[in-house]
Amino acid sequence: MTADHLISTYFATGTLPDLPRDHFIDGQFVPPAGGARMQSYDPGRAVPFGDFAAGTAADVDHAVHSATRGFAIWRETPPAQRCAILMEVARLIRAEADRLAVVESLDSGKTLAEAQGDIAGSARLFEYYAGAADKLDGRSVNLGNDNAAFSLREPVGVTAHIVPWNYPTSTLVRGIAPALAAGCSAVVKPAETTPYTALMIAELLIRAGVPAGVVNVVTGTGQEAGAPLVQDPRVRHVTFTGSVATGVGVMQAVAPNVTGLTLELGGKSPLVACADADPEAVAEGALWAIFSNAGQICSAGSRLVIHRDLHAPVLERLVAKAQALRFGHGLRNADMGAVNSDRHLAAITAHLDSARARGAEILCGGNPACDPDTGTGWFFEPTILDRLPADDPAIQQEIFGPVLGVQVFEDEDQAIALANGTDFALAAGIYTCDISTALRLSRRIDAGQVTVNDYWAGGIELPFGGNRKSGFGREKGLEGLDAYTRAKAITLSV
Ligand code: NAD
Question: Against a cut of 0.85, is the pTM above it?
Answer without folding.
Answer: yes
